[in-house]
Amino acid sequence: MKRSTSLLIKKIAIYISAIIVFVWTALPLYWMIATAFRPEREIYEGLVIPKQLSLNSILAIFGFGEEYITVGSTITPYMINSTYISIIVMVVSTILGVLGGYALARMRFPGKDILSSLSLFAYVFPTVVIMVPIFYLFSMWKLVNSPTGLILALLSHTLPYTLWMLRGFFQTIPVDIEEAAFIDGCNRIKTIIRIVFPLSTPGIVATATYAFILSWNNVLFPLILISRTDLQVVSIGILNYMKADFVPWDRLMAASFVATLPPTLLFFAIQRYIVAGLTAGAVKR
């Protein structure tokens, strides 16, 4: 009787804790969405549930409607720039991560263990600490206010993660499978293409998705390296809605909501790969 009561209390405590965490996490998201779709006159009323729903704010940030001029430029160029840069960063970091991760997981060469540890050393220091040398170097190399410079800076942030994750995932694939392919006459490249890649699809997809999200959400690199308006990305474009004397909360929340859609849709589209990839890559067999 005491044991069943104790288990019941534990279950109740777990459920209550889960509800608190969910509310704490979901409340800011709900308020952002509710503010984006409520009429401007209701924003300062403090209503939890909007009385009416309106698309005026969403249309305004894309340049439609009569009032969009009062909030500055539209979000469309920022979305295009972010999509372009994030896709390039995702593709390059995934390709290099696959090649480097496989080499760290399978090949033998001097300093491999040290290199594996150093792949995460980039995350030891806060990003703001390395921004001064990065800006200094990029200034000498004429890479400030350049998409190429921003892509290289973002790669310095995403590539260590892709290397470490894919290395861990490749280590979960039994070596016997590759050795059997070697016996059947496959060389290293054919083995990687025909054996390793199909088995590594969940890990590669999960890693590529996270690299895209890291690039999309980054604020510091584009804030420091990009000052030209036509090259700014969506994370900086949202900041442009915040004026010194006036903040259009409906437009700001609408822009924030639109900016969350690409990574959110990408996550839900390949959710099963992400769960399988992160689970397998986190444990070495």
Written description of the protein model:
The protein is mainly alpha-helical and 285 residues long. It has 2 domains: 2-71, no CATH class; 76-281, Orthogonal Bundle (MetI-like fold). The chain is 70% helix and 0% strand. The longest helix has 35 residues, at 2-36. It is globular.
Helices and strands, with pairings:
Blueprint: H1 2-36, H2 56-61, H3 76-106, H4 112-118, H5 127-140, H6 147-170, H7 175-183, H8 188-199, H9 201-217, H10 220-225, H11 234-239, H12 249-269, H13 271-281
Helix pairs in contact: 1-12, 3-6, 3-9, 6-9, 6-13, 7-8, 9-13
Short description:
This protein has helices spanning 2-36, 56-61, 76-106, 112-118, 127-140, 147-170, 175-183, 188-199, 201-217, 220-225, 234-239, 249-269, 271-281. With 285 residues, it is an all-alpha fold. It has 2 domains: 2-71, no CATH class; 76-281, MetI-like fold, CATH 1.10.3720.
Question: Helix segment count?
Answer: 13
- Secondary-structure arrangement, i.e. CATH architecture of the largest domain: Orthogonal Bundle
Distance between the termini: 41 Å
Helix proportion range: 55-70%
How much of the sequence lies in strands comes to under 5%
Sequence of secondary-structure elements: HHHHHHHHHHHHH
Average residue pLDDT: 85
In total, the number of domains comes to 2
